[in-house]
Write a structure and sequence with these properties.
The protein is built from 5 helices and 4 strands; from the N terminus they run E-E-H-E-H-H-H-E-H. By secondary structure, the protein is of the alpha/beta class.
Amino acid sequence: MISLKRIYEKPVPEDGYRILVDRLWPRGLSKNEASIDLWLKEIAPDNELRKWFAHDPDKWDNFKRKYKAALETKTKILEELARIITEHETVTLLYAAKDEAHNNAVALKEFLEERQ
């Protein structure tokens, strides 16, 4: 199972394997507080796409299309992520965005579930 969670929320055992999927480290959070198993910043949108999107809901559909096209080129990282997902009952994709409906973790989860 793949779940989503803001990294600022308290970690719980039910999170399972915790992966931060943002390119930038979350502000004001220590590595100890984050309690992550892996920081997979290479899976995040590149800086150009991230800045263009700027969490604008009006750009959401275009962002998802562009991000998914970029993900298709990241075969080694996707293979690593697929292996992790099969090895763990629950994998939680962590993100820092305040918008819980329009962020790269939501798009990544959708992409991964479409491929399963």
